[in-house]
Design goal:
Elements (H helix, E strand, L loop, with lengths): L1 H54 L5 H26 L4 H18 L1 H16 L7 E3 L4 E7 L3 E5 L5 E5 H5 L4 E2 L5 E11 L4 H11 L13 E7 L3 E11 L3 H20 L7 E6 L15 H12 L14
Antiparallel strand pairs: 1-2, 1-5, 2-3, 3-4, 6-8, 6-9, 7-8
Length: 317
C-alpha cells in the first residue's frame, strides 16, 4: 500500500540519517576542539613571539608587529584547514572553491588589499620607523605601530590616530626624526644703542654651548638688518633631534634675561622671533619628554603587554 511504503521509506531515511549523524558527530566535536586549541595556541604564540622579538636587539621594532600578526594568522589558517579536513572536507575541492572565489573576494576587499600592499612597501622602504615623528597633509604624530592594515600614531596632545597604510603611502610625508640634528634660528630686534659686538657675545652665550646635552655646534650670529633706530641680528645653531622645544624655549628666555641684566630696560630686545622651525612645523613642540626615544620606550612597554596584538586583532586566550 502507498501509506505503508511511505512509512517504510521514512523509517529507512531516519535510520540512515541517525547513523550518519552518529558517525559525523564525533568528527564535529573533534573539529571544534581543534579550533579551540588552535585559536588558543595562536594567541599564546603571538604573545611569546612578541616578547621574544622585544628582547632581541637585532630585530627592528618596525617589523615586530607585522611578524607577530603573520605568525598568528598562519597558525589560525592551519587550524582551519585541519578542522575542515577532520569533518571530511576535501582539501582539493576547498582550494578549488577558494581559487574561484578569490577574484570576487579580491574585488570586494580591494581597499583592504591596498592597505596590505602599502604596509609591505612601508616595511620594505622604511620611510619611517616605530618611534619616528612624522607629518602628513592631514596629521602629525609619533609612530607607535606599523600593522598589516593600519599604522598607529600618537599626536603631541595625546590623541591616537589609526591611519590606513594606503593613506600614508600615497601622500607626501615629512620625517622629523630621520636627521640627527635640526637647525634653529631666531631674529632678535635690538635698539641701535646696543653695541653689536656685545650683543653678539651675549647671543652666543645664550645659546647652549657645543657639547652640551642638546646642541651639536657653536651658534652663528650675524647682522641681518639695520634701521635708523634698530638692528636685527640672526642667531642660528644646530640641536639634537628631539630637543627643539627645550632649546628654543630656554634660548629665548635666556636672551631676554641677559640683555636686561647687561643693558637694563633700555637694552631689552624689542622682538625675539623664531624663524626655524616655522610656525607651520609641528615638531617645534617636541621637547625631551616627547622625543622619539621616549616614544620607543613606551612602545616597548606596550609590546610586553599580553593583551596587545599586532595587526589590530586581539589575541585569543
Amino acid at each position: 500500500m502507498p501509506i505503508q511504503e511511505t512509512l517504510e521509506s521514512s523509517s529507512t531515511f531516519l535510520r540512515t540519517l541517525a547513523a550518519q549523524a552518529a558517525n559525523f558527530l564525533p568528527n564535529l566535536l573533534v573539529a571544534l576542539l581543534i579550533l579551540a586549541v588552535g585559536f588558543f595556541l595562536a594567541g599564546r604564540l603571538a604573545v611569546f613571539v612578541t616578547r621574544a622579538l622585544g628582547a632581541s636587539a637585532r630585530i627592528d621594532e618596525t617589523v615586530r608587529g607585522p611578524l607577530v600578526a603573520i605568525t598568528r594568522y598562519v597558525v589560525i589558517i592551519f587550524t582551519l584547514l585541519v578542522a575542515l579536513s577532520q569533518i571530511g572536507v576535501q582539501m582539493t575541492s576547498l582550494l578549488a572553491v577558494l581559487g574561484a572565489a578569490g577574484l570576487a573576494v579580491g574585488l570586494a576587499l580591494q581597499g583592504t588589499l591596498t592597505n596590505i600592499a602599502a604596509g609591505i612597501m612601508l616595511l620594505w622602504l622604511r620611510p619611517f620607523r616605530v618611534g619616528d615623528y612624522i607629518e602628513t597633509q592631514n596629521f602629525a604624530g609619533t609612530v607607535h605601530e606599523i600593522g598589516l592594515f593600519t599604522s598607529h600614531l600618537e599626536t603631541f596632545d595625546g590623541l591616537f590616530v589609526f591611519a590606513p597604510n594606503s593613506t600614508l603611502w600615497n601622500v607626501w610625508m615629512r620625517n622629523h626624526s630621520r636627521a640627527a640634528s635640526r637647525l634653529l634660528a631666531w631674529t632678535i630686534t635690538l635698539p641701535r644703542t646696543v653695541p653689536f659686538e656685545e650683543a653678539r657675545d651675549l647671543l652666543v652665550s645664550a645659546f647652549p654651548r657645543d657639547g652640551g646635552e642638546d646642541t651639536l655646534s657653536e651658534p652663528i650670529v650675524f647682522l641681518d638688518q639695520l634701521t635708523a633706530d634698530a638692528q636685527v641680528l640672526v642667531l642660528r645653531g644646530r640641536v639634537k633631534e628631539g630637543a627643539i622645544s627645550n632649546v628654543q624655549r630656554r634660548t629665548a628666555e635666556r636672551v631676554r634675561q641677559l640683555f636686561i641684566e647687561r643693558f637694563g630696560e633700555a637694552g631689552e630686545p624689542r622682538a625675539i622671533q623664531r624663524t626655524l622651525p616655522t610656525d607651520a612645523d609641528p615638531s617645534r613642540y617636541l621637547g625631551r619628554d616627547e622625543a622619539p626615544e621616549a616614544s620607543r620606550t613606551l612602545v616597548n612597554q606596550r609590546l610586553e603587554e599580553p593583551t596587545v596584538a599586532a595587526g589590530g586583532v586581539p589575541p585569543v586566550a
